Automatic annotation (TrEMBL):
Species of the source: Epidermidibacterium keratini
Keywords: Acyltransferase, Transferase
Matches recorded under SMART domains: PlsC (SM00563)
Gene Ontology molecular function: any one: 1-acylglycerol-3-phosphate O-acyltransferase activity
Any GO BP: phosphatidic acid biosynthetic process
Listed name of the protein: 1-acyl-sn-glycerol-3-phosphate acyltransferase
Length: 224
């Protein structure tokens, strides 16, 4: 039980987390939270900021980190309903979207990173269309989310946490009903462009119109 309850207060103490725009998140029903991705700590920041049970796709490594912090992380991930994804599996991206659809059909909040992987330099990279496709298929609205400060809380390549100010900001939802013109490929790309513009407005990041190379190996499939 300790590992299930300790990670939230510990994270809040280290991050002094500020949440803005929570009123944009519906209290019930399916919703997709689309957030930028700066750090592994985003997997803690977003569910805590949403304020309702939130399913999240998480790397399988988050469940097997060593030491006490690793146990706390794994316990928190289990408690909030994180779905572990082994990105070494060739069908990982497809399986992750199947899991996301099931969660939304059950009326849950589901958080995803349109960039597919962490930003290597703090800039916001081009979004993949998985979030938009999921929204269009399920009819679930998308609430954009801009995160700042988690990359200072845990710097790239480090397992140490350092005190840093974290802000999580939510914006007005984007409805899939606004994207009805053209085939799925066109609608999903148009919606993705709008999602990334909304995230950029919330995070203040510089935008890069190319996919993030991320910290992953080139052969790892992205989690869209």
């Amino acid at each position: 039980m300790l590992r299930h309850v300790a990670i939230g207060p510990l994270f809040r103490a280290l991050s002094r987390m500020q949440v803005e725009g929570r009123e944009h998140i519906p209290k019930t029903g399916a919703v997709i939270i689309a957030a930028n991705h700066l750090s592994a700590m985003d997997a803690l920041a977003v569910p805590l900021a949403v304020g309702r049970p939130t399913t999240f796709l998480g790397k399988a490594e988050y469940f097997s980190m060593p030491g006490i912090k690793g146990k706390l992380m794994a316990g928190f991930m289990e408690r909030v309903g994180t779905i572990p994804v082994d990105r070494k599996q060739g069908r990982a991206a497809l399986l992750s979207l199947d899991s996301a659809q099931q969660a939304l059909e059950a009326g849950r909040a589901f958080a995803m990173h349109p960039e597919g992987t962490r930003s290597p330099d703090g800039r916001l990279y081009r979004g993949r269309t998985g979030v938009a496709r999921l929204s269009l298929v399920t009819g679930s609205p998308v609430v954009p989310c801009g995160i700042t400060g988690t990359d200072k809380l845990q710097t790239a390549g480090s397992r140490r946490l350092r005190p840093a100010k974290v802000t999580v900001s939510f914006g007005p939802e984007l409805s899939p009903a606004a994207y009805t013109s053209g085939p799925m490929a066109v609608r999903s790309r148009d919606m993705t462009v709008d999602i990334m513009k909304a995230i950029q407005a919330l995070s203040g990041q510089e935008y890069v119109d190319s996919f993030s190379p991320g910290p992953r190996a080139p052969t790892d499939p992205p989690i869209a």
